[in-house]
Write a structure and sequence with these properties.
single chain; 137 residues; mainly beta; 2 domains; 3-stranded antiparallel sheet; 0% helix
Length: 137
């Protein structure tokens, strides 16, 4: 696949979407030795075509805009959460399972995203060895 690379500046938000008036936290890790600059922009065009308008942005006033000291915030890609067996699942006639994923290593073997297993019984949502969605009941 691709070699492991360390991004000198990486960030993510604490939520995937927000409505007007909601707060959104931005977590940033910077390997730089100088401060980084944060700003909010409205993307007017984001066309990579050389014959197109290119990338054009408009600065939007934001209270957080400014320079911040660089500091490394170590993180490990991927995560795992384990919940003790909720007995309520044994009494349900039906349920809905939902997971939002951004597969960054498809084609590198089966990957479980969400599962409820008890010995030979259970279900799982994930990716198969080719990176295709897989549901097992």
């Amino acid at each position: 696949m691709s070699e492991n690379r360390i991004l000198p500046l990486a960030g993510y938000t604490d939520r995937l979407s927000a409505r007007p008036g909601d707060s959104v936290e931005v977590k940033v890790s910077s390997l730089g030795t100088t401060p980084y600059h944060a700003s909010l922009v409205r993307v007017l065009y984001a066309d990579p075509n050389p014959d197109g308008p290119g990338v054009q942005e408009e600065i939007v006033l934001a209270a957080f805009a400014g320079d911040y000291p660089s500091r490394e915030q170590k993180f490990c890609p991927g995560s795992c959460g384990v919940v003790e067996h909720p007995k309520i699942l044994n009494t349900l006639n039906s349920f809905t399972a939902f997971v939002t994923i951004w597969p960054t290593t498809p084609g590198q073997g089966c990957q479980t995203m969400l599962a409820h297993q008890d010995g030979q019984r259970g279900w799982s949502l994930g990716l198969d060895e080719n990176g295709q969605l897989l549901a097992q009941l």
